[in-house]
Amino acid sequence: MNELKYPFLMSILPLNEEDSYLTRFPSLPQYPFLMSILPPEEGGGYLIEFHDLSGCMSDGEMIEETIENGKDAVFCWIETAKEFGDEIPQPGSANASI
Predict the structure, then answer these.
(1) Do residues 74 and 91 touch, judged by C-beta distance below 8 A?
(2) What does the DSSP 8-state code read for residue 41?
(3) Nearest CA to 34 among 58, 15, 18?
(4) Which DSSP category does 57 fall into?
(5) One digit per residue, pLDDT tens: the chain, 98 residues?
(6) Given 3-state DSSP classes, what are the helix, strand and coil percentages for the chain, each rounded to the nearest 5?
(7) Residue 45: Cβ-neighbour burial (10 angstroms; 0-12, 13-18, 19+)
(8) What does DSSP assign to residue 96?
(9) What does the buried/exposed string (b/e) look like for 53-90 if buried means 16 or more CB atoms within 10 Å of the residue's CB?
(10) Sheet containing 46-50: order of strands
């Protein structure tokens, strides 16, 4: 039987003009993310990944902490990209190529 290494928890869609999830959930990052439950052998808690920003991820013990750590990871990823003159993808751009 195939089991997911990190069971899927949630995914947030990117912003659009008709329905801004940031209006309803202002603490969420602008970039869509995937949050997974980490197994106990990997420390437990949650993992948050931002597929638009290659390698951008974080974790936390509680969902709220994981989201806050994820926002910090996005900020740091973007600041580093700016420092090196790298392109900064738009939110939802990874979904456009699927």
Answers:
(1) no
(2) G
(3) 58
(4) E
(5) 344 444 444 444 444 544 554 454 455 667 888 889 999 999 999 999 999 999 999 999 998 899 889 989 999 999 999 999 999 998 888 865 54
(6) 35, 20, 50
(7) middle
(8) H
(9) beebbbbbeeeeebbbbbbebbeebbeebeeeeeeebe
(10) 8-11, 34-37, 46-50, 56-60
How far apart are the C-alpha atoms of 70 and 50, rounded to whole Å? 8
Which H or E run includes 83? helix 63-84
Q: Is residue 38 a contact partner of residue 6, using CB atoms and an 8 Å limit? A: yes
Q: What single-letter amino acid sits at 55? A: G
For residue 14, which amino acid is it? Answer: P
The helices-and-strands tally (H runs, E runs) of the chain is 3, 4
How many other CB atoms sit within 10 Å of the CB of residue 26?
Answer: 8
Length of the chain: 98
Q: What global pTM score does this model have?
A: 0.72
